[in-house]
Structures are given as C-alpha cells and as structure tokens.
Design a protein that fits this description.
Structural class: alpha+beta
Number of helices: 3
Number of strands: 3
Distance between the termini: 15 Å
Helix content: 40-55%
Order of helices and strands: EHHEHE
Radius of gyration: 12 Å
Shape: globular
Strand content: 25-35%
Length: 65
C-alpha cells in the first residue's frame, strides 16, 4: 500500500496453484497494488524461479529501505 515494492516476482507454478486452490484473488490484489504504484510484476518460469518457490512463491524487491 505504501508503494515500496519496485518489482514483484511471482513463480508461474505458484500462480497456477493459487488459481486451483481458489486463493488467486489475494495474489491478484497484491499484483494490482504493485502495478498501480508503478512497480513491475514479473512472472517467472526460469530455473531461478525454483529458489523463489522455496521462499513461498512470491518475492518483492523494494524501491527503498
């Protein structure tokens, strides 16, 4: 809500999982907030995504600390 996230990284498999479990609305709301605050949303399906998946499937890179 503060606009602190510059980039939101979402693992593609986590995105699919939320749709299957019916919890996609919460993730969608977060992605929309990031987009509305001029942040970037990246959907990952590369080998790097495995590391982020081990953190829960979503990671944010802050604009500032």
């Amino acid at each position: 809500e503060e606009g602190a996230i510059g980039s939101l990284l979402v693992v593609e498999s986590y995105l699919r999982e939320t749709r299957e479990k019916g919890t996609y609305k919460a993730l969608d709301a977060i992605m929309r907030l990031v987009d509305q605050s001029n942040g970037k949303v990246h959907i990952l399906s590369t080998p790097v995504a495995k590391k982020i998946a081990s953190l829960g499937g979503v990671a944010g890179i802050l604009r500032w600390t």
